Amino acid sequence: MGSISSRFKVMTLTEAAAERVREIIAASDKPIAGLRVGVKNGGCAGMSYTMEFAESSAPHDEIIEDKGVRVLIDPKAVLFLLGTRMDFKTDRLSAGFVFVNPNETSACGCGESVAITPASADALSASA
């Protein structure tokens, strides 16, 4: 785990998000080490969030434990996700994970991609 983790949490989960992740992990037929969260280039706004269950952590992953859920974050995604809160929302027509990210500068109309400006070194210092 990176040394940054001891000073701040890159990401937090709401109770609804943690509960849904725990439910999915409990229903899995294979061992899961954690939920891998990241960002990738693509979509009409430039980037999109990625999520997958990981059977193991990578050597340089940031590992965050929140509400009984282990979140694995690729070091390249840390500055894009700094301060993000992951929620799980259910409404009449859909249910899904929602990211509330202070680094987002815009989002596309379809809700599938976002523009994210990486956090600055000042943000890292303020979080310590």
Q: How many runs of DSSP E, i.e. beta strands?
A: 9
Q: Determine the CATH topology.
A: Hypothetical Protein Aq_1857, Chain: A
Report how far apart the termini are.
16 Å
Give the helix proportion (percent range).
10-25%
Order of helices and strands: EHEEEEHEEEEH
Keywords:
128 residues, alpha/beta, Hypothetical Protein Aq_1857, Chain: A, 4-stranded mixed beta sheet, 19% helix, 38% strand, disordered N terminus
List the helices and strands and how they pair.
Layout: E1 11-13, H1 15-27, E2 34-41, E3 47-54, E4 62-66, E5 69-73, H2 78-81, E6 84-90, E7 95-100, E8 104-107, E9 114-116, H3 121-127
Parallel strand pairs: 1-6, 2-5
Antiparallel strand pairs: 2-3, 4-5, 6-7, 8-9
Structural overview:
This protein is of the alpha/beta class and 128 residues long. It has a single domain (3-121), classed as Hypothetical Protein Aq_1857, Chain: A (Sandwich), CATH 2.60.300. It contains 3 helices and 9 strands. The strands form 3 sheets. The chain has a 4-stranded mixed beta sheet. The protein is globular and about 35 Å long.
Give a summary of the structure in a few sentences:
This protein is an alpha/beta fold.
